[in-house]
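Sorry to interrupt, but I need a hand with the structure work. Could you write out one complete protein record for me, on any chain you like? Just paste the record in under my message, thanks.

. . .
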Amino acid sequence: MKLPRVPDTRSIPLSRRQLTIAVVIVVLLGGGLWLAFATRGERAEQAPPSAAPSGAEPAPGTVNWEGWKLTLPEEGKKGNAAIVEPAALTPPWLTANEDGSLTFWAPAEGATTENSDHPRTELNSLNNFSAATSGPHTLKASLAVNQVPEDSKSIIIGQIHGADDISSVPYVMMHYRDGDLRVVVKQKHKGSDLQSYPLLTGVPLNERFDITISDIGNGQMTFSTTHNGQTRQASSPVPDAFHDETVRFQVGDYQGADESKGPNDGGKVTFYQISELATAP
């Protein structure tokens, strides 16, 4: 006797099976994509802060530590401002950020150098030169001022400072004061005989700008500031009192509070690049 034929499931039209499989795949892929995007979004919201851990090295080109020492707003062994030589990251005064920039913090109530009333976190160059007579020397920096002292609103962000026998004499000082930039040049070692050169105005806190301070080597100095595509320049003769004197560059956060308004009062500056060059600007 001939048995009845059992239907072969493989004979079911492929179109129906393919449709079922396709629906399952679409559902699975959709759920997977949704989960991936949701997880990605969650990771983005939990991104780490921009500040790098203490001890992180700044990006190449930001500053070469071997050419600088660091003045801090905390007491050293002799009771005056401490010195770190060669310079190094020293939280909370000098810290590195993830992008390689350096943040300088100087409280209004910190320790001071022997001949100053204002605390600072400032790099001092170890490369002295003779004012007006030793060829071009240029300091370039890119920075943003993040906080100014409550009363004076003023920070010295770059200097040509006396060295060796006149190491206590400030000489050329670039000031940021409540958004305005200007350079002050002392005409003599002692006293208040000054020449002031206005540069840019209206530079807001937390906005990046560039500065240049240069001793050309022929008896002239030039200064410039650039912000948001606008540049202002000024020039000055080297005063007779400083011709052939030994000087050096200083750069950082030399805040100028007249009186502390509390532990959070002071100056904070972030530098994105600092370069000392033996060339004209």
